[in-house]
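User: I'll paste a sequence; please echo it back and then give the predicted structure.

Assistant: Echoing your sequence first, then the prediction.
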Amino acid sequence: MLSGKTPAAIPASTFLGAYHIATRYLNCPRDLIAAEIKETLSLGSPAFVEDISVETVIEAVDAAMAYNVESWDGYLVALARSLNSPVIYSLDRDFRKIPDVSLVVPFSEEKVREYHRWIEKLLKGG
């Protein structure tokens, strides 16, 4: 420690959030952001804390970029691939874009619509 300050710690998972914000809210090009994240992670800084391995973050960003899905969806794809388990249970139909992943929606279409109506009502303050 220097001067009693806590050393910097940056969880690797932070880069998944950065990809999401940069591509979805700041409209930055997916390929540019993916390249920047990979370059930054390649520095191997001791500040990086591998709450998720750097390799998994890179695979997640690659999947998110390639299939135009959210970065956390890319993480689930990277995780499924690393575990050799191609089935993902989710309401997110974006997983259908990914050829080596099988999506299972565990609820009926009506229950999913009911859930979405409930969320919309909550967001409107009702």
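Residues 90 and 105 are 5 Å apart (CA to CA). DSSP finds five helices and four strands in the chain.
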